[in-house]
Amino acid sequence: MGKRIGYARVSTDDQNLDLQRDALALAGCSTVYEETMSGKSADRPELGHCLKALRSGDTLVVWRLDRLGRSLPDLVGIVSSLEREGVAFESITERIETTSAAGKLIFHVFAALAEFERNLTRERTRAGLAAARARGRKGGRKPALDDRQVREIRALLRDPEIQVTDVARRYGVSRTTLYRYVGSPKSSAVV
Q1: Phi, psi angle pair for 47, to nearest 5°
Q2: Which end of the chain is more exposed for a tag (fewer CB within 10 A), N or C?
Q3: Active site residues per annotation
Q4: How far is CA 172 from the centre of its chain?
């Protein structure tokens, strides 16, 4: 039988971990990783330590689902990763545990909802881009150099005394960007 390891998180310093500590202790957790960190932050060091400590046969226990995942897709990703490693998952408040068939079913419904949410977002994005294109707008970043600037740069680079680095600095772009617009220095000299 593996260990029951808890993870507790609050978002701000003025919040208290006592409720979560008590619930995780009652749930039989031998170790509890705790941190004060916004759930929106991808960098949660204690969660990283917790996940590294888990071994096949162990169970990760949280007080509530939102303590673990930043979003439904994030939560599904973490729990799926645990499942691949042979680690069970349990959420005390929602009474979800992946050791039983019913718990797995509930979690897979969550996974399906997360996939549905991703697909809806993708469809909305595509529809929005298509509508913008139909109105003559292009998506993406504004070009670093306009046609007039490209002509000027080509003219400048015909002079063998002028350095590519100086031209790039003058126009506020990198040498790579400059080459992307005007080609290699040899082809610019010919133009």
Answers
A1: -65, -40
A2: N
A3: 11
A4: 30
pLDDT of 44 strictly over 50: yes
Domain 4-112 has CATH 3.30.390.10: no
* Whether pLDDT at 6 is above 90: yes
Cα 93 from Cα 97, distance rounded (Å): 11
**Residue 186: how many CB atoms within 10 A of its CB?**
7
| Cα–Cα distance measured from residue 96 to residue 67, given in angstroms and rounded to the nearest whole number | 14
Characterise 75 by phi-psi region: left (phi > 0), alpha (psi -120 to 50), beta (else): alpha
C-alpha dihedral (159, 165, 168, 173), degrees to nearest 10: 160
Q: Is the distance from CB of 188 to CB of 182 less than 8 angstroms? A: yes
User: What is the gyration radius of the CA atoms in the chain, in angstroms?
Assistant: 27
Helix (H) or strand (E) holding 170: helix 164-171
pLDDT digits (tens, 9 = 90+) for 116-136: 887 888 888 888 888 888 888
160 DSSP 8-state letter: T
User: Quick one: tokens of 36?
Assistant: 């004060």
Task: Quote the percentage of the chain above a pLDDT of 90.
Answer: 41
Token pair belonging to 163: 């350095």
DSSP 7-35: EEEESSTTS-SHHHHHHHHHTT-SEEEEE
Question: What residues does each domain of the chain span?
Answer: 4-112, 147-190
